Amino acid sequence: MTAAGATAMFTIGELAKRTGLPVKTIRFYSDEGLLPPTDRTPAGYRLYDTTALARLELVRTLRELGIGLAEVSAVLVSEATVAQLATRHVDALDEQIRALTLRRAVLRAVAKRGSEPEEVKLMNKLASMSDGERKRLLDEFWEEVSAGLDVDPDFYEWMRSAKPELPEDPTPEQLEAWIELAELVKDADFRRLIRGMSERHSTARAEGADMSASQAQQERWFSWNSTAQAALDEGVDPDSARGRELAAEIASTSAPAGRESTDPAYRRELAEQIAVGIDPRAEHYWRLLGIINGWEPFPSRVAAATWIVEALRASAGPAA
To answer: Whose CA, among 184, 213, 293, 296, lies 20 to 30 Å from 239?
Structure first.
């Protein structure tokens, strides 16, 4: 019991009761110099005053925040402030959170796909890429699929300019989309698909075709696509009056000089021109890029475009 006016003193056991910390832990802090005793009893037992009690509470708080003993000691001897330590640990925690978020995205994708060990290693490598590495991967992809071809430079530069831009704190969905996009552009079949589209583009340019789509042309195509999607949603068959009507409009608007829009051969050619540009994987590339970059989602147009192709083929009738 403390005499009136005297400073309150506590044994290690009393500190343990007041703080809820184990005696063993308090003794360890004391032995490490983080909590030197204020005094000792005649029998040599350590005693601590209220200042030591406050010091112990600070040590406990810093340790619970994951701060190491050496850093705690630096604070206690005024070699570093709590604010400085907090700043350093916030940065470290941010890095840990980013790493854990990446790990979670990989594990979610692994669970979803039932991946084998080799694929897991690849996915982890893809998720850990830097911004520069991600952009280089897409640059290499577009270089490969257009190398040596006479393609519209403005169009392909626009295609190449859309790069994956993961935010500082990406969502699991964004990371999963990046892993899938990286796998897609590394896939040999997908590269052949886009290379084939580029070759047809190059051939058409060499033959004098105007490969640049005007604003009016783009708007017309979106209108036709919307009309086809509405028919598709209603269960209307491409080989129907509505299908023939849309096919006639598309053929009439698209027919170049010297070609008759009602010619079955022309309609079949037009159908094939549209068909070669339809592939769910090409659309999926842009959908994944949109998820990564946080773009507004856009509806799939593949099914409607396929309906248009079938309508044109049906309107042309069977080949002779």
So the answer is: 213
Q: How far apart are CA 313 and CA 146, in angstroms?
A: 30
- Taking 60 as the threshold, does the pLDDT of residue 11 lie above it? yes
Fold of domain 12-80: Multidrug-efflux Transporter Regulator; Chain: A; Domain 2 (1.10.1660)
Q: CA-to-CA distance for 100 and 298, rounded, in angstroms?
A: 30
40 membership: H or E segment, kind and range: strand 39-40
Amino acid identity at 100: L
The two three-digit tokens of residue 57, written as one number: 């509470």
Question: Does pTM surpass 0.70?
Answer: no
- CB burial readout 86-122, b (16+ within 10 A) else e: eeebeeeeeeeeeeebbeebbeebbeeeebeeeeeeb
CA distance 94 to 108: 21
pLDDT at 71 over 70: yes
Q: Average pLDDT in the 143-161 region?
A: 87
3-state secondary structure of 259: coil
Q: What is the mean pLDDT of the chain?
A: 86
Token pair belonging to 5 = 């006016």
CA distances from 120 to 105, 113, 179 (A): 11, 10, 11
Name the residue ranges covered by the structural domains of the chain: 12-80, 103-153+171-201, 213-316
